Amino acid sequence: MIALIQRVRTAHVDVAGATIGRIGPGLLVLVCAEPTDSTATADKLLAKLLKLRIFGDDQGKMNRSVQDLDGAGTPGGLLLVSQFTLAADTRSGTRPGFSAAAAPALAQPLFEHLVAQARAAHPLVATGQFAAEMQVHLINDGPITIPMQVN
To answer: By residue range, what is the domain housing residue 38?
Structure first.
């Protein structure tokens, strides 16, 4: 799976003019499934997301995860948004190819599994809508943006 992780002060997703997912401080994660991915891949991605230390501690070092955003046990939000365009191949021509992304029949169940596991493991989880035309609004904090690939 491919993920683009953004540390945010706030983020929300709109579909057809209505906000369907919103978080305060936390992580906005754009997620793309690849053809060889499985539920085990999604589980591995989630484990990394929940433990990724990209929030500042009292000395300003990135030592805290979304599970302990403020050092006092307060968790941050996790906004998961499916985005197949992360698998874009731009090596030739001017029109990206997307053959490296999983087909919707595989990608949707994997994304739904990731969301279900995230909700079971973390108290503040919001999502976009799979295959919908979405508008994603965010205030990137830092800015901190980290690409991640999990196999």
So the answer is: 2-42+76-149
Number of structural domains in the chain: 1
* Residue 52 maps to a domain: no
Give 13-26 pLDDT, tens digit per residue: 999 999 999 999 99
Output the domain CATH number for residue 103: 3.50.80.10
pLDDT tens figures, 36-67: 999 999 999 999 999 999 999 999 999 999 99
Beta strands in 16-133 (DSSP E): 18-23, 26-32, 55-56, 62-64, 77-82, 125-127
Active site residue 94: no
Does 129 reside within a domain? yes
84 among known catalytic residues: yes
Please tell me which residue in 85, 98, 135, 149 is annotated as part of the active site: 85
Q: Does 27 fall in a domain?
A: yes
Model confidence, pTM: 0.96
Q: Is 127 a catalytic residue?
A: no
CA 61 to chain centre: 22
Catalytic residue among 6, 41, 83, 127: 83
- Give the whole-number percent of the chain exceeding pLDDT 70: 100
Q: Which of 41, 67, 84, 117 is catalytic?
A: 84
